[in-house]
Design brief:
Layout (H helix, E strand, L loop, with lengths): L3 E2 L9 E8 L13 E6 L3 H11 L4 E7 L3 H11 L3 E3 L2 H6 L5 E4 L6 H10 L3 E5 L9 H11 L3 E4 L6 H12 L5 E9 L22 H5 L9 H5 L10 H18 L6 E7 L12 E8 L2 E8 L9 E5 L2 E5 L4 E5 L16 H10 L19 E6 L4 H11 L7 H20 L3 E4 L4 E2 L1
Parallel strand pairs: 2-16, 3-4, 3-6, 4-5, 6-7, 7-8, 9-12
Antiparallel strand pairs: 1-2, 2-15, 9-13, 10-11, 10-17, 11-12, 13-14, 14-15, 17-18
């Protein structure tokens, strides 16, 4: 990678600006007979990106691709070259040349495909959310423990140096006691709302519709549902499990917490009245031990907004995609002026003078200015995808485990339960009990 540097300066004197520096990273080269065979289950939009990422990593060989639409399989051959294709994902699991599978399918298929892959002796990279429902997580956790195989969940932001720095700042206590976190995601386009174009050749002849439905209720063929499946509860958890889960995985790591204890949600369909059943605007307030997190997605607004604000008694950390800004605002041990306005003059003057102020309540010497902005630089590390390959090649633990994937997805499901039942929902992460 070419060296590059992006600078960000924050207004105000008490700001810490985090500066990200790109640098190269190379995996240990694999010999010709030391390749890792990859099979892909799902070849749509996200899978195309994953194929692009994995095929550039030394020692990774693409073996076979499964998908239910002929066009996606044709595109996979264009992208990967000499690769086998099939509409039956079981053939990927039966292939002896496949060491690891990448699953990027509609959510309602995730659990079965993960369980089948582990039972077949394959390592697994599963796109977030790991599960379609809150009940599915424990079964996957048990299967991973039995299998002895690696499973990594794909919430990519968790493994960035930016995330590591945010965690370091929070855990160091520089923010004081954190009591409130606000996380947001604005989108204002058909693409951002999953209104993807339908290929002109989409039909029952080019798509295995029955297999797509799988465990979901039967319904007549609808190409829009096939290509825009995130818009329906039967196949997806909507904004909460698609977009909240990215934020939740990050939040749990940075704050060093497992899961929320309760949630309350509001939202609805305000713009995308296209037959979908999941909301396009949704806000959830999560209760964690010691703090609350306010999280929302707005699919009808493109206004820029900080992705995350972590607020404590000593400072606030603003987190964007490529920078951190720390605003220090410690509580000053100053005298109270407003609180003494009703006092007689003699008592107010004595109060101020006893605390080293003028009788009028002004400091006798100027207050020290806040610290100047401090710039921190780090090198960009390996990507989420490279870390999966490193874990396989060097027998390292997963950088985003099934347990982390379960609790992040479960928090998204918790938000949906609160939204759909219109009530505050409590959850015991240890027992899985909802109340």
């Amino acid at each position: 990678m070419a060296q590059s540097r992006r600078r960000f300066l924050a207004a105000g004197s008490a700001s810490l600006v985090y500066q990200l520096v790109d640098s190269g990273f190379s995996l240990r080269a694999a010999s010709a007979n030391d390749q890792i065979g990859f099979g892909y289950i799902g070849a749509g939009i996200r899978a195309t990106q994953l194929m692009e990422e994995f095929q550039t990593i030394p020692g990774v060989r693409s073996v076979i691709v499964a998908d239910l639409y002929d066009g996606y399989l044709e595109r996979a051959k264009e992208q990967l070259g000499d690769v086998k294709t099939t509409k039956a994902y079981e053939k990927v699991l039966d292939d002896k040349d496949v060491d690891a599978v990448v699953i990027a399918t509609p959510d309602h298929w995730h659990k079965k495909m993960v369980l089948d892959a582990l039972a077949a002796g394959k390592h697994v990279y599963i796109e977030k959310p790991m599960t379609w429902s809150i009940e599915e997580g424990p079964e996957i956790l048990r299967a991973v423990a039995r299998s002895g195989k690696l499973l990594q969940v794909g919430s990519q932001g968790k493994t960035s140096p930016l995330t590591a720095k945010a965690r370091e700042i929070v855990q160091s206590g520089r923010l004081g006691k954190v009591t409130m976190i606000r996380m947001a995601n604005h989108r204002n386009s058909p693409e951002g709302a999953w209104v993807y174009p339908v290929p002109p050749d989409a039909s029952p002849q080019t798509i295995d519709w029955d297999r797509f439905l799988g465990p979901a209720p039967k319904r007549e063929f609808d190409a829009k549902v096939f290509f825009r499946w995130r818009c329906w509860w039967e196949y997806s958890g909507g904004v909460a499990t698609d977009l909240f889960v990215h934020l939740l995985t990050w939040l749990h790591y940075v704050m060093d917490v497992k899961a929320p204890r309760a949630a309350v949600s509001q939202g609805g369909l305000y713009r995308w009245l296209d037959g979908r059943t999941v909301p396009d605007v949704m806000e959830t307030v999560y209760e964690y031990d010691g703090f609350i997190a306010d999280m929302y997605v707005h699919l009808a607004c493109g206004a820029p907004t900080p992705n995350t604000l972590i607020s404590g008694t000593e400072g606030t950390l603003e987190v964007a995609a490529d920078r951190l800004v720390l605003y220090a605002h410690p509580q000053r041990p100053d005298v109270q002026v407003y609180g003494t306005l009703g006092w007689p003059r003699r008592l107010r003057e004595r109060y101020f003078e006893e605390r080293g102020y003028t009788p009028e309540g002004r400091p006798k010497s100027p207050r020290p200015r806040g610290a100047e902005p401090e710039t921190i630089q780090v090198e960009r590390g390996p990507s989420h995808y490279e870390l999966f390959v490193l874990s396989l090649r060097e027998n390292r633990p997963s950088v985003e485990t099934a347990e982390e994937g379960h609790y992040a997805a479960a928090a998204g499901h918790l938000a949906n339960v609160a939204y759909r039942e219109r009530r505050r929902v409590e959850w015991d992460p240890e027992t899985g009990r909802l109340s």
